[in-house]
Amino acid sequence: MILRAESISKSFSDKKVLDDISVSLSEGELVCILGVSGIGKTTLFNILSGLLMPDSGRVILKGEDITGSTGHLSYMLQKDLLLEHKKVIDNVALPLVLKGMGKKEARQKAFEYFEKFSLTGTEYKYPAQLSGGMRQRASLLRTYMCGDEVALLDEPFSALDVRTRDSVRKWYLDVMDNIRLSTLFITHDIDEALLISDRIYVLGGTPAVIMDEIDTGGRKNRDPETGYPEDHTKLRQRILECFDPAST
Amino acid sequence: MKRRPSITDKLIPLAALLILILVWELICLLGIVPGYMLPSPVRVGAAFISEFPLMMSHAWVTLCETAAGLFLGIILGFITAAVMDTFGTVKRALYPILVLSQTIPTVALAPLLILWFSYGMAPKVILIVLTSFFPIAVGLMDGFAGIDPDQINLMRAMKAGKLQIFIHLKFPGALPEFFSGLKIAVSYSVVSAVVSEWLGGTSGLGVYMIRVKKSYSYDKMFAVIILVSAVSLMLIALLNIISRKAMPWKHCGSYNGGEGESK
Ligand SMILES: Nc1ncnc2c1ncn2[C@@H]1O[C@H](COP(=O)(O)OP(=O)(O)OP(=O)(O)O)[C@@H](O)[C@H]1O
Ligand SMILES: [Mg+2]
Whole-angstrom Cα distance, residue B107 to residue B36? Predict the structure, then answer.
């Protein structure tokens, strides 16, 4: 167990958003948080990353309480949030520069990954000159450059076209295996969740609770492009029921 | 993409200006207004040329005052904005006072400053600092306040310190507002310099203006007015060049397709 959130609750003014949410992530695991829009997924990530303080509950990273403390996890926010005044390469290298690395060295390190992310040729452009998908890839690459053991990705593939998405996903899964990266990621896309995750937490209700936890039988036993779990349709149905319990 | 200004866009105001000058010349030629009150454009032009070396030596003094005042104004404005942005309480306490202070016509302060600091450069520079620092400070503060809070969150998530957030995010993010503030400050400060020179001193365009006024040389009067606005215009043009250089990302064009991606 590398990351654990214990009974997190959070309200905004008097509106309760998260109610007693507990999630866990093991080393090398890819775990997905599924839920409809506005349910509180981003809020949960803001708490895990330390940006927001929960009303109650704790966040434990490798046995250490990190509740409300930032800088321990690589967090890719839902918006790409590239700095418009920095060239793409400097955006990507920013996490290294913030850690005290010289600009030139940081650029060199960042440069190595541009091809993998199909970003070749964009290094010295400004973010305004990139397409939505390119920006998202740059943002994912920047998150990767943070270099922490756990990554939180908030809808990392949503702005990519089908072909790029498949290749960036596949690359990301390879990286995860190579460096024993553990990932928690958010999506609304049920099929995406079933395709690439090891486990799925389904959020539902107001305030949001964990409605269901689904074990997809280990992503490594499946092909990341086509390998849905055997009982794909049944799992899909089960998740849909969590989203909208009234309809069935 | 902005439309490129075409030739006609520039020709139309130019033609209007030309017509205006022609009408002015006609009024003088026909004697509608007596020549000693309203010199004709030709006479003003002649005065401009004959007085040019003398006016330039005065302009140099005014420019030096303006530059010194602006420089100090930028530093003061920058410090004020940074302190107010960092300490919310300071901002809440001082911002209203700052705005209130702007209702004092700075020109009215000039005689007081001269009483305090005598006739040298000091009172002029101080007046320019007082007038220029406000638009700069307000511009910067608005710029800082306009930064996307999520962007700050992202920096915090990457464990950036306050100073790093300032250097990498806040300051460059506030540059556009800073330059708009600076543009206002530049036009204010040339005016402040001239006005404070009216009230005393031995050189500067304001001093020159008072002298030609005393000798009823309307043509020279017009010539120096034109020079003062030319100086302001040139400073603004210079500032435009600097701001383009300082913010290359504003002028790099935008993405226009090419990768076959959905948006
Ligand atoms: N800072 C805040 N202040 C008040 N309410 C907030 C704040 N942040 C989020 N909320 C509310 O909390 C709820 C959950 O928001 P959140 O952004 O976590 O949803 P989400 O699941 O990430 O949605 P989406 O899939 O659309 O991104 C929403 O109703 C939102 O209005
Ligand atoms: Mg969200």
Answer: 29
CA distance B16 to B5: 17
Rounded Cα distance, A82 and A139, in Å? 7
Cα first-last separation, chain A: 36
**Number of domains forming the structure of chain B:** 2
Looking up residue B101, the CATH number of its domain turns out to be 1.10.3720.10
- The segment(s) of chain A belonging to CATH 3.40.50.300 are 3-73+149-247
Task: Say if B90 falls within a structural domain.
Answer: yes
DSSP string covering B89-108: HHHHHHHHHHHHHTTS-HHH
For ligand 1, residues with CB inside 6 Å are A 12, 17, 35, 37-43, 78, 188
Those residues whose beta carbon sits under 5 angstroms from the ion ligand 2 are: A 42, 78
CA-wise closest residue to A91 among A107, A70, A69, A71:
A107
- pLDDT one-digit tens code per residue, B174-228: 999 999 999 999 988 998 899 888 887 888 999 999 998 888 888 899 999 999 9
pTM of the model: 0.84
Same-domain pairing of B81 and B29:
no
Centre of ligand 1 from the C-alpha of residue B194, in Å: 56
Q: Whose CA is nearest to atom 8 of ligand 1?
A: A43
Nearest Cα of chain A lies from the Cα of B204 at a distance, in angstroms, of 40
CA of residue B152 to ligand 2 center, whole Å: 17
Stretch 169-198 of chain B: residues touching chain A, C-beta under 8 Å: 169, 172-173, 175
Quote ipTM for the complex: 0.86
User: Tens digits of per-residue pLDDT, A134-192?
Assistant: 898 899 999 999 989 999 999 988 888 888 788 888 888 888 888 788 999 999 888 88
- Do B32 and B102 share a domain, yes or no? no
Fold of domain A3-73+149-247: Rossmann fold (3.40.50)
Give me B257's structure tokens. 């397709």
